[in-house]
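I keep forgetting this: the sequence line spells out the residues, with the fold written below as integer tokens. I include a record here:
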Amino acid sequence: MSMVELEINGLPVSVPAGTTILDAAKEVGIQIPKLCYHHDLDAWAACGICVVKVEGSPKMLRACATAVGPGMKVITHDPEVVEVRRTVLELILSTHPNDCLQCGRSGNCELQDLSADFGIRDISFEKRVTEIPRDESTPSIVLNPEKCVKCGRCVLVCQNMQGVYALEFIGRGENTRLAPAADVNLEESPCIKCGQCSAHCPVGAIYEKDDTKAVWNALKKNNKHVVVQIAPAVRVALGEAFGMEPGALVTGKIYTALRRLGFDGVFDTNWAADLTILEEGTEFVKRFTGGGPLPLITSCCPSWTDYMEKFAPDFVDNFSSAKSPQEMLGVMSKTYYAEKMGIDPSTIVMVSVMPCTSKKYEITRSDEMFASGFQDIDFSITTRELSRMIKQAGIDFANLPDSDCDSILGKYTGAGTIFGVTGGVMEAALRSAYYLITKEDLEQVEFQAVRGMEGVKAAEIDVKGTKVRIAVAHQMGNVQAVIDQLRDAQAKGEELPYHFIEVMACRGGCIGGGGQPHGATDEIRAQRTRGIYSDDEKSVLRCSHHNPEIKRVYDEYLGAPLSHKAHDLLHTTYKKRPLYQR
């Protein structure tokens, strides 16, 4: 590796060739302020806050997009540089609303932090805030273009990371504004509601639709039985909102907090993940051994199913018909649980806590999400929304004692918890599929081939002499390559390269979901992932087919995986939909 020697503020530093000044400065403990830059994205030097001086250059350079050079001498901070940065900030603030107290990002806003760091109390420029209406057309995310600082992160995420192209900048100069592609509303656009735009936005221009008021209203009604479920990835991220390290496993504290909020039943989506594996795993084995459309493609990610219906409807028949764990637990709460507990299902309010904004869309995606005879999930809130509810209730989360969930819809295996990471659904399915095919348990349940942050992972698994070809893809921009691979094989009349494919829309899987605490980087995603795997490793039971509560629900209620009753309650269908909904 070629190394470059340079000086930053008089301090010598040696970094690999191609390193930016921004990253080189970190090596000597210097933080250069930035607003448009994000670790996940290619730098495009939009904001100008990271300008630095380089000896021999007639102008200041943008540190995020300037590579180091041999012998370079860089000044990152002096009175002139600070004044330029302050001026840039004042220009941004001159077109930004002054309603921080009413903004969901107040206290967690990168522009607010920069303004405080620079001690900005007055603005030298005339205030010019353009009134642009909010776009609240989707059930998942809200656009507030008035607060857009034109950093471009959301556009880069939507187009380059996710490959969806639902967002763009319209207009020129100071009339530039953020809008859905073709200037339609967001619901009419190709948007897949993944929320990665909101997760990467530095300010309050894009955020999740807040359903906490509706949940509070349900909790105060004496004639309602309000129950809740938490997704796998929530347990390794919620602690961040209370000063804990990313990846801290806070499952027991969450159960306690939910009871203190007033929920009558506390369940765990991991239980339903085990149920999903029995349905989806059986579906795969049936197709693999008895014929049926292959590859089987996972369908627990609603952003991916939305994408597929719009961008790849030729593979609708390949999708697993199994509902997501969220939806399975919802319908079971208003059927099996209601029957077992003698509760009128019309009085049950089911709330799900998800790392994901598209789960808000999923709960009314089709009539099949009302399989219980009622809306199976009444409200879906994000990890961020739950953290706000806990703070509103004055709960000292970090110091809460642990407690258990309600066993009837809560006890889970290690296979259920790994649903939260890329490769986890595949690994959990393989653990049980191996048993369903061979009637033997694996001695080694870990499948290292499907783990890690590589965008597409492919492997061949040996099931007692039978080869199963699998692929795992995460981050929607990577998924198109797999789709193209399948289409290319079809066009050539060749055997398709895979039997089973897992897809998750967000980078790293659900641990990097659009509703998780802001500020995720690959380092934070890795910490959350380690937390998920630690939950699996400490589990006594690590395969879904060993979950006694799942066995019981089949014995007492469903009969068997893919039974008529299981199909009516736990399965769904997909169809082609147009990119633009007008």
Remarks:
- The mean pLDDT is 95.
- The longest strand covers residues 466-474.
- The radius of gyration is 25 Å.
- Residues 219 and 262 are 6 Å apart (CA to CA).
